[in-house]
Design goal:
With 297 residues, this protein is an alpha/beta fold. Helices cover 37% and strands 18% of the residues. Strand 8, helix 7 and strand 9 form a beta-alpha-beta unit. The protein binds 2'-monophosphoadenosine-5'-diphosphate (ATR).
Amino acid sequence: MSDPYETLLREANGRPFAAIVGWPVEHSRSPALHGYWLKQHGIDGHYGRLPVERDGAALRRLVAFLRANANARGCNLTLPHKIDIMPLLDHVHPDAVHIGAVNTVVKRADGSLEGRNSDGFGFLAALKAGAPKWRAAAGPAVLLGAGGAAHAVVATLVQAGVPELRVVNRTQSAAAALAASFMPEDGRRIVVGRWEERGKALDGVTLLVNTTSLGMKDQPPLDLDLARLPETAVVDDIVYVPLETRLLAAARARGNACVDGLNMLLHQGRMGFEAWFGQEVDVSAEQRRAVAADLGA
Ligand code: ATR
């Protein structure tokens, strides 16, 4: 098998480049979404894929590669590297420290490497675009899950001013640990609920967010009774394969405004692209169609 670093350099062919780094990385849609922007703005750059194993030496090699290569502008990180990369970087943005994970690495003009997290930004931008009337301060919200994505969404919703955030996860101790990580300032606004009572947690909320993997292709569906969910509530499922999860289909059928996970993916990409290639970008319906086609959706 050829060395993935050599492959990436060959593809970049002397142009500035970034890449999605993870294990596995073949299924990532990031090359499609960044490739769209490169083409749209006529930028002579490249965004590729770099498979890097979960192993300290492999991650150190990545960091050394980014530092040594003049055309390397940075990378995105997906599983399993979002946390392990943090101590290897020169700077970590305070928002990423707060979330506890890095998904974007940017090489600064002085050559140092900065870690950022764009998941929260992407989540909020997609929510605002998909449900412009939603107001954080208007009432309680409920979030299902307590994994990596949940951390970014909780940090963002608390910062946006949600007065009460109910976090409900199958493993309750993980939800409690998540809430504890926001103590002392914001912890009081986070209320941990029981998974068995997730239907009851929907009482009076303005927003329901699914950050679990339930409903994703090849995973079990999310079993959730929506009877208590107000019709005015927004339902946001960050799963994007499939685009229309059973949760979103059920919510749409009863009149709730819905936001799917693809827009979050597109918006989170903006932070890296703008830093690497120096071009402001926006998410368009055409880009969404191009990436959705790439998903086979
Ligand atoms: P990510 O980083 O993408 O958020 P993750 O850290 O693996 O992914 O988190 C997956 C989330 O889906 C967790 O909240 C997990 O619940 P547990 O903490 O109990 O594991 C949730 N999840 C996965 N499978 C589930 C299932 N069958 N029933 C309920 N929750 C499930």
